[in-house]
Write a structure and sequence with these properties.
Length: 215
């Protein structure tokens, strides 16, 4: 009795497969899936990834205090920029070698002393945090090869959003990025953490003048 019912059910299923009703059900499903594939493709346009030439790229930093300022350089470890199918900047990321911090407005032992202090736990703690990372999260075209950029930057293991403008000139991306060190727990000489510093105060904001060369 059970075998008879099973054969009957199997036969009925095969008949449905052969019927026009099944075709009418299957074709719309296939069409829907095809449209979804096309829509997915359109929301993920092709991008071109271009590596950063670290030998030709530079970062110049400037930090200011009540009694003056210091400048120096820091190296890029690597990274890339991405461009859409119209050749417009669309994203990218790069890493900064924190061990490479150098002071260029001083010389000799004065420069070495400042460099060691900046690398210490008073400032960037490079022994524990040897790399800083900037990751672009949004780009909008402002015209004339200029872009408004939103990015996440990670310093001392802390990630914060930043905004800046970058200009593409030939194969170079140029930007001046202002960073508030107090947001990354860099406390030394900061009026955000200590009072009555007087002329020993060091301003929270420092500037990175970035020139990325792509290849």
């Amino acid at each position: 009795m059970k075998n008879s019912k099973l054969r009957s059910a199997t036969f009925s299923y095969l008949e449905i497969l052969k019927s026009n009703t099944f075709s009418k059900i299957l074709l719309p499903i296939c069409a829907f899936l095809f449209i979804q594939v096309l829509l997915t493709a359109n929301t993920n346009p092709p991008v071109t990834i271009k590596s950063i030439n670290v030998q030709e790229s530079t970062i110049t930093w400037t930090g200011k205090k009540v009694t003056g300022q210091h400048t120096g350089t820091i190296d890029i470890k690597g990274g890339n920029l991405t461009f859409d199918d119209n050749g417009q900047l669309s994203g990218g990321q790069f890493e900064i070698d924190m061990n490479s911090i150098a002071c260029t407005d001083l010389s000799g032992s004065s420069a070495s002393q400042l460099e060691s202090h900046l690398k210490s736990d008073d400032f960037f703690g490079v022994a524990a945090f040897p790399v800083a990372i900037l990751n672009i999260t949004n780009v909008s075209n402002a015209g004339n090869d200029t872009y408004n950029v939103v990015a996440d930057i990670t310093i001392k293991g802390i990630t914060q959003p930043i905004e800046f403008t970058t200009t593409m000139i030939d194969a170079h991306a140029l930007a001046n990025i202002v960073i508030d060190r107090s947001k990354f727990n860099v406390r030394y000489g900061s009026g955000s953490f200590f009072q009555n510093l007087g002329d020993k105060a060091i301003y929270d904001e420092f500037t990175l003048e970035v020139k990325l060369s792509i290849q």
